[in-house]
Structure prediction request, 819 residues.
Amino acid sequence: MSASALAKRPLLSRHLLDKAAVWIVLLILLIAAGFVSEAFLKLNYLGNLVRQAAPIGITAVGVTFVMILRGVDLSVGAIVSMSAVVCALVMDGKAENLWLAIGVTCATGSLIGLANGLLIAYGRVSSFILTLGMSIVVYGLVQMGTGGTARGIVSPGFREFLNDRIGNVVPTLAICFVIAVVVGIFLQSQTRFGRNVYLVGANPHSARLAGIPAVQTTVIAYCVSGLFAGLGGIALLARTGVSGTNPGAGMEFDVLAAVILGGTTFAGGRGGVGSTFAGVLVLFIALNLANVAGLPFAAQLTIKGIIIIAASAAHAWIGRSGGDRTE
Amino acid sequence: MALLETHDLTRRFPGVVALRAVNFTARAGEVHAVCGANGAGKSTLMNVLSGTIAPSSGRVLINGKSVSFTTPAEARSAGIAIVYQEFSSIPELTVADNIFLGQEFRKGFGIVDHKRASSEARALMERFRIDLDPDAAVGTLGVADRQLLELARALSTDAQVLILDEPTGVLSLSEQRNLFEVIRTLRDRGMLILYISHRLEEIFEIADTVSVMRDGELVATREKGSLDRKELVRLMTGHEVSDTEAIVDSLAGGETVLTIDGITSDDSRILLAEGEILGLAGLVGAGRTSIARRLAGLRPRTGMTAQLKGKPLPFDAAGVLKTGLVYLTEDRKEDGIFGPLSIPMNATAAALDYFSSAGFLARRRERSEAATLLEQLRLVASSLDMPITSLSGGNQQKVLFARALLAQPKVLICDEPTRGVDVAAREDIYRLLRDLSKRGVAIIMISSELDELIAMCHRIAIVRHGAVHSVVANEDLDEHKLVLAATGSDAA
Prediction:
């Protein structure tokens, strides 16, 4: 019948294009980087790249869920800061505190996420404003807690382990990032929670009619975002070794850039953790290239901003012309 | 002489030819219906004629002169105006301001002359005998009036050709009659009206000439007099389709499934038996959908109480669904489909309890069961992994039916189940509803198409002003009586 013929219109390619876009960009960037310097294509560099990206990448995995749900989480930068500080404080330079510190840090992140989720789901506040406010609250708490100086000492062995390279090639932190991505993909595709996130994000009205628990889904999604931000904070602490007073400042925008690059746009119900992984890598390779080209930090900031704008415009364009069919 | 002609008009999309060398001819002063199944190419043809899409090759001629336009604005200045299925008016503005949207009268300094707009609008309506208040805010208008507004908007450009795409989709019978009056006035003034519709009875009522499209080709253009309903359906589908014959089986005294109190005007109780199909007839805005949505837990159930198999119906949508009352929405886009998600994800959304255990999805089983069911429903799709928006209206509706079926309904409420659905898919939906009824599912069917209700329902409840005014058994009904009851003209 003709309907089947018409269904084959340009949609197929558009639909695939939307999913593949970020991977194509990643490939092009890698090839371009290879022309600039062969070092870019070495396993060593690539491992290093993933390691570098781990704090932002792990955080971005959690934020992806919130964004599929048509929300946004601007408090993750503050949660990363708080987690690094809390983790270092609880470790207090003692090896036996290691697991306790990790547990407390994860709980802290999840709790802030829980607060975000409850306020957004029940208070019906815009996630943009609420998480922005939350980030200011959390930054304030961190400043009060530390008194403005770096506090806490990491456990011995903590940095050494996470900054080690397995088989002398692949950094442990890079593996942690990959594990976070795998866990994220599992959550998103194999669990009721992940499916509910997509359904509510794609169309909240249809979701209600289909009996999907939107409030519960929202609350869990923000918890997940908070938890992954907590883990991101631990990864950051492992990289820097000192908690600083505000190590995660501004990180929410890198995270946002990576997630949007991957195709998880504000439209809801689209994208996913796998694409976010590619988005994170694209962002970091682009920044590294800028670095190699000798662009100053300010120029790199501009590049980041342009990436956010261009990526969301591109995905909106692909999504619009591919998504709908009149008649 | 022909007012509008196309010569070998062709439009290719990657992988498909939507229009194949179409040679279409239409005269001034006729209502020319263009029909065909979903995807036959009629919308593409209209989009080309109205400047929304450019043809790949071929020409369009108006009054024998070749014209070419690449935007709707250019098509409008060439004399072709289109009224879309979906409204594009702005609710906050008045009728007059909407009519002249984008072509406002100015007083200078960019200030809009509302008074002039209002008087020009009034003159326009009088000329075409359209009954609309130019100063009313559009947001306060009902659907029918908004439809008239869209029409007035198209007329404000002095069009010679007016394209109406499914104009009666949301109109009740009397509103439809009103619209047809306007259309006839326009025709008598020498305009050409291209009329796109799925509803055959409408085509026979309003059209002078009928063109049929199938698979991107124009298969026939006939005078209405030389065409009957069966022949038209055969031309559209390319094969014989059984006409919607009366299919009501007598009920073998099934057990009561649903009890509803507080929705009838005389405080009587409505009982729905296993396997029964109850129709809700009435004008648009009479409150049929409101009754359905209150039952489904989507709106507060003020004054209404309902019991399913003797137990009170829960108040929340999720709870209602769990007890086995499933509501199939009339507005697919608004709260039916999950636009960006795949077809199986759309189909299983209301049955995730069944497709998961301990919070983990059984994805393979989910996919295979959804695929099997969709195949039974004769879904036409190039790939299940495509977003549901890639499907035609009829096929989207089939996916929504699959969702409802997977939710194991005891009571199924379907609200305008055949709206925007082509002839072949309609037959599939009718067959499905009959099957469900035979399997003991009680069905409440809301429809604005009376012949559909009469063909499908055991009993029909007439809804007026938000309440059920009377319930009649099917044997006692014909279309005429239903119209009278629905409009309140039967009041003795």
